Amino acid sequence: MHRPIRTPTHAASTVLALALLGACAAPAPAHKGEVQGAEASTREWGQSDINRVATIAMRENLQALYRLADKLYRRNPTEWRKGGAPGRDEAVARLRTAIEQRSGWAPLQQRRDIDALALALAPEYADDRVAAFIHAVADMLIAAHGGKTEFFLIDGLDAQHLYNAARNLETAVWMLAQRRNARGGPLLLADEINAQERNLSYEREFGKIIARLDLLAQVTTEKYRRAVIGYVQGLAGGTFLQFLPVR
């Protein structure tokens, strides 16, 4: 006895058709950018892998600081006016030039590294605090990298100094959020959480810098251990992993 072949009901067919139409009409995933690599240059011939990683990390950290300077100026426009700049863009550009030329910052009384950072976060500091803070952070980071922003085979990094820089930045970000000026307000308006807004973009940007420092510190520590392992592997490979003649 043959059983009749069952066909989909009209309702089921309608549901299937709507599902297919919905799948076809679903929007494509939003494009969120692509990895941007630097152009190749002859300078890379003088860099090891770790040199290249350190150079890229430093470049990204400085770019993050320039973005933070711009964001802080947007929320604290009185700061760039204190410094006498004609506008926010000019203030960021002037700050960037001072950092990349490794020149001091006059309102910081030519202090450098953590001494400059301490002054920039002092409640009584009355000049452009955005410029002072970003310049001091950048100077501290560069000092932790041996005073350099680009690294070659002859250069070495101290893992402990990188680790210390990450902890210093954590402390500085906490002080920026917790300390109050003479009027009882925050040193700078940055992250904000309230009923209408949740803006943690500053914390995320600082977090990326800290993460890169910690990773580079770990990679630097690994470098010497891996060099020994690589040497032993080379000896083992040269002794035991050679093909034998068959004729």
Tell me what you see in this structure.
The chain has 247 residues and is mostly helical. It has one domain (45-223). It is built from 8 helices and 2 strands; from the N terminus they run H-H-H-H-H-H-H-E-E-H. It has helices at 10-25, 49-75, 77-82, 88-100, 113-120, 129-144, 159-178, 201-240, and strands at residues 192-193, 198-199. The protein has a two-stranded antiparallel sheet. Helix 2 packs antiparallel against helix 4 (88-100) and helix 2 (49-75) runs antiparallel to helix 6. The model has no long low-confidence stretch (mean pLDDT 81). Residues 1-32 form the signal peptide. Keywords: Signal. This is Lipoprotein. It comes from Paenacidovorax caeni.
Secondary-structure topology with pairs:
Elements: H1 10-25, H2 49-75, H3 77-82, H4 88-100, H5 113-120, H6 129-144, H7 159-178, E1 192-193, E2 198-199, H8 201-240
Antiparallel strand pairs: 1-2
Give a short overview.
It comes from Paenacidovorax caeni. This protein has 247 residues and is an all-alpha fold. It contains 8 helices and 2 strands.
Strand count, sense and closure of the main sheet? 2 strands, antiparallel
How would you write the strand order of the largest sheet? 1-2
Please state the average pLDDT score: 81
Sketch the topology as an H/E string, one letter per element: HHHHHHHEEH
Q: Beta fraction of the residues? A: under 5%
- Let me know the number of strands: 2
Q: Low-confidence parts lasting 5 or more residues at pLDDT below 50?
A: none
What structural category do the secondary elements indicate? Answer: mainly alpha
Total of DSSP H or I helical runs spanning 4+ residues: 8
